[in-house]
Structures are given as C-alpha cells and as structure tokens.
Write a structure and sequence with these properties.
The complex is a heterodimer of chains A (84) and B (181).
Chain A lengths: L13 H14 L8 H6 L3 H15 L6 H14 L5
Chain B lengths: L4 H20 L13 H14 L6 H4 L5 H15 L6 H14 L3 H13 L4 H23 L23 H12 L2
Classes of the chains: A mainly alpha (84), B mainly alpha (181).
C-alpha cells in the first residue's frame, strides 16, 4: 500500500489534468485513472516538467525504437527489483 | 514485442550478464590460471572469435581452472548473446543497462565497447544511458512511496505454449481430467 494518499485526477489543477490526457496518448492506453507515477510526478509540476521532458526525450525513437527502449526500461526496473 | 518470447530472452540475458559481472568485478585475480589447459584454450579461442578481440574477457579467465565449467558458462553466454528474436546489438544494450544499474565496472565497460563494436553510435549509447537513468529514478520514486503496479493491463497476455509444447487449454483440460474423482 502506498505510503501517501494518491490524489484523484480531479484534485489536481486543470492544466495538470490536461497532462494526464497526454499520458494516455503517450502510452496509447485509455487508463481509467492516471497511472500512480503520473500523479506522483504531477505533485511538483516544476520537477515533473523537467523529469517528464527528459524521460520523453530518452524514450523517443532515435537510434533505437520505442519498443527497444521500453525493454531497456523493463530491464532496469527488473534489476532494481521494482514491482511498479 | 507483444508476445512473451523476447521478454524471456531479455530476462535470460540479464541473468547471464549478472553472472559474468559478479565474478569479473570481484577480487578473484588469483583464480586465473597462469597456464590455461588446452581445453580451456580451445574455449578461449571461441570467445576471442565471438567478440573479435585478442584478449579473453575477465569473467571467463576467472573460471578457466575448471575447463568444463568454463565451456558451459561460455555456451550459455554465447546462446543468450547470439541473434535470436532480439538482435545481438540490442542485447548488448540491455546488458549495458543492466551493468550500469548494478554498478558493474566490468559489465559497463565491456558492453559499452561491444555496443560500439557492433555499430551503435554515440547517440545510441546516450539513448540507452538516458533510459537507464530515467528509470533508475522512477523505480526509486515508486519504491519509496511503495506504489502498486497499475499498468499491467496495457499488454495482452500471450497464450502461446512454451517452445515445442502444446497449447495451455489442452494441457489444462488434461490436468483437470486427471484430477477428476
């Protein structure tokens, strides 16, 4: 169980709620609620913006495809024993 | 990569990568035989050819005192790094990411050099490093807050059988019939 109460999307300011919609497009998945990580990163929008842009830049297809990069991400998450 | 096969491949690769790294990064120089046996030398020759290099990577030299073990370790390594569903180039990138994440000096340097040898440019290296760094951040944020997985249903479940096996529905039916009173 999370150590903090994850806020519902409706508890965030409107500009942030729009970003949650962007996340759906990024993942090409219609989440019922924004993923927990999206809601956590939105807690501090200034950090979230930098971090989110860096992540998007890293994950955008370049010399590697998005799928290849997702697998790198999965390996890092697995090695870090991160269930999330 | 919608089916499970490449993910099995990636996981097996990470396991073998870590096995090599733990030995290579440990203070085990004294285990390296000064004069490897002819059997070990034959395996070394295969390793040099596979990596197209004059020397034998540390991880293999450390276990050369047991040529049989060396041969099997090498066989497993060659298997997981050979082109299959995932390309060797991509596999080296995954091994690099796993090595950076586990702070393996040997693995990081070795797989970086292999990526470059296989044609990955500086941009490609930076892309892998960026993904590794970003997800090293996300994972620790998630762990600190003990977030529970909520994105597991993005991908469909792969119901295909194990290689050479039969479909799960058939086997399940058989198992159920055997358990029936």
């Amino acid at each position: 169980m999370p150590t903090v109460r994850l806020r519902d999307a409706s508890e965030y300011p409107e500009p942030i709620q729009k970003l949650f919609e962007v996340a759906k497009a990024w993942f090409k998945h219609d989440f019922a609620d924004p993923p927990a990580m999206s809601r956590v990163m939105a807690w501090d929008p200034e950090l979230g913006a930098f971090h989110g842009r860096a992540m998007k830049r890293a994950m955008t297809p370049g010399e590697w495809t998005r799928a290849e990069k997702e697998m790198v991400a999965a390996v890092v998450s697995g090695v870090n024993a991160c269930a999330y | 990569m919608a089916d499970d096969a490449p993910w099995y491949e990636a996981a097996l690769l990470v396991g073998v990568t870590n096995a090599l790294n733990v030995v290579a990064d440990s203070p085990l120089e004294s285990l390296e035989p000064a004069c490897p046996s002819a059997e070990a030398d034959a395996v070394f020759a295969e390793i040099r050819a596979f990596y197209d290099r004059a020397d034998v990577p540390t991880a293999f030299r450390r276990v050369a005192a047991d040529p049989g073990y060396l041969a099997d370790l090498w066989g497993a390594t060659r298997r997981v790094f050979t082109d299959n569903r995932l390309t060797r180039r991509h596999k080296e990138a995954l091994a690099f990411a796993a090595s950076v994440t586990t702070r393996s000096s040997f693995g990081t340097a070795f797989h970086l050099s292999e990526m470059r040898r296989l044609g990955v440019g500086e941009r490609g290296v930076m892309e892998v490093l960026g993904v590794t760094q970003m997800f090293s951040s996300y994972t620790k944020i998630a762990d600190t807050l003990q977030l529970e997985p909520d994105m597991g249903d993005i991908a469909a479940v792969d119901h295909s059988p194990a290689p050479g096996g039969s479909k799960p529905s058939t086997r399940s039916a058989e198992a159920r019939s055997l358990q029936a009173p």
